[in-house]
Amino acid sequence: MSTPNFFSAGSPFLAHPLLTAERAAQEIDFIAAELALPPGTRWLDVGCGFGRHSIELARRGYEVVGIDPAAAMIDAARTRAAGTAVAVDFRQAHAEQFTTKTPFDAAICLFTTLGQITEQGENSDLVNRVFAALKPGGHFVIEVPQRETAVSQLKPTDKFGNGERYTAVTRQYNPDDHSITEIFRLVSPEETRAYRLHYRLYNRAELTCLLTAAGFIVSAAHGDYAGTPLADEHPIMLMVGQKG
Fold it and tell me: What is the β-pairing status of strands 63-68 and 42-46?
C-alpha cells in the first residue's frame, strides 16, 4: 500500500504550527503593498491549501478564487471560511489543468506549491496556466525554496511533540532530479500513520526561465517578505511576474 500524499485527509499539514493566520496576514501585507491593486480586483490563489491566504485576501475586499487538487484541503478551506465574515470561491482543481472564462488581475502561488510531484506527475505547467488565466498586465507572485540554501540546510530527521504522541519526519534529497522526499509519521498509542511529500527544488535561473518562457516579465525578486533583494543565502525566492 502506497503512503498517502501529505495533503490528504488526516494530514499534519492541517495543523501545521507555523502556518498561522498572523503569518498569512504578514505575507499578504507585503504582497498587497507590492502589487497595489484596489479592493474588488480578482485574485487566484494557486495551491490554496486550507485557505489561509485566500481568506486574508477576501478580508481586504478582493474577489478570490482558491484552487487546490486535494479534497481534504478544499474541505478545510471551506470550513475555515464559513467561520469568517468573508466569501471565497474554493474549487478542487489541479493548477496545471486550470482554465477560466473570467480572467484575473493577480495570482499567488506560495509555500512550495510549485514543484509538487504526485502520481499525476510534476506541476510546472501551472505557470503557463496562470499566465493564460491573467488579464494583460496581470501580476503573478510565486514563492518557492531556493535550492542551494534548502539543500545546505536540509535536516535529515525531525521530531515534533513528546511522549507517546509525536510526529517524526525524515527527509532525503535526490540530486539527480533535484527533489526532496519527506515522510511524516504520526505516532500515537492507537496507531502510526505516514504521509509522503515529494517536490522539486528550483534555483533562481530555473524559476526565472519558467516565468519568462510562459511570457511573464520578471519585475522583482525578493529573498523574504520584507522586500530584501534576493541573494544566494536566502532560503526562499519570492518572484513577481507581470503578463506583458
Answer: parallel
